[in-house]
Structures are given as C-alpha cells and as structure tokens.
Specification:
Largest sheet: 5 strands, mixed
Radius of gyration: 18 Å
Helix content: 25-40%
Strand order of the largest sheet: 1-2-3-4-5
Oligomer: single chain
Structural class: alpha+beta
Order of helices and strands: HEEEHHEE
Number of strands: 5
Distance between the termini: 72 Å
CATH architecture: 3-Layer(aba) Sandwich
Low-confidence stretches: 1-11
Length: 128
C-alpha cells in the first residue's frame, strides 16, 4: 500500500482583510513612487504616538508618505479620511524619526490615495 505525502495547509494569515488590503495598498504605493524616482528609506515606522507608512527620498528631500486605500469615493474617499488628528500623529512620528538623523534634510508630507484602483499622488500636503 502506497501512502501519499500529507499536504500541510498554509499557515493561517492572522491579519484582517482590512490589514491585508492596507498592506497591498502600501506595496502599490511603494512601487508607484519608486517608478517615479523616489527611493525607499523605511516602511512602517512606528513610535509611541504615531506611525509613518513610507519614508522615501526624493533627491535631497525626505518624504513622509501616508497611504490610504478605499474601494470607492463613498464617505469622502481616501483623502478625506486623513483627519487633523492623523496629521498630528504623522508630524509627531516624523519628528521622532528626524531626531535619529545627524543632519536635518528638507522634508515634506505626501499622500498616496488609492480609490477604486486609481492612484492619486498629492505632494507636500500636510503643513507642519
């Protein structure tokens, strides 16, 4: 009697569908920005009180990127979901990141809004 090898099932992905969608959006945003000449410095920078989805370099400028993905424009879409509180948290995280650097480069905040599969890149949108 010949036994077939037992196929192990793939480990269960514990991320929620919302988190998987967000990760997918960040990957698409990263690829889009790299195609437009930006270089990745760090993904998912976390600190107490804030987070940054992507930290990129555009020439000599450090770019802090917030990525928002929405299936539709319902409820204002991706851009409208970036509240003043979220902007403050991003600014805080950027300040924490900048404290690690010896010199302070020029900086800006960009948003990649993915709505219904279309990418919108808004540059220098959050005023510190």
């Amino acid at each position: 009697m010949r036994r077939e090898p037992v196929q192990e099932s793939a480990p269960h992905d514990k991320r929620t569908s919302r988190r998987r969608s967000g990760d997918d959006g960040e990957l698409h945003a990263l690829q889009y920005l790299e195609q437009n000449g930006l270089k990745l410095i760090q993904k998912n920078f976390l600190c107490k009180g804030g987070e940054l989805d992507l930290i990129m370099r555009d020439g000599k400028t450090l770019v802090f990127v917030e990525v928002r993905k929405r299936a539709s424009m319902q409820f204002g879409g991706a851009i409208a979901s970036i509240t003043a509180a979220k902007q403050r948290k991003m600014q805080h995280a950027a300040q924490v990141f900048l404290l690690q650097l010896k010199q302070q480069p020029p900086c800006r905040f960009d948003v990649i809004a993915i709505e219904a599969g279309t990418i919108h890149w808004l540059q220098n949108v959050i005023v510190a």
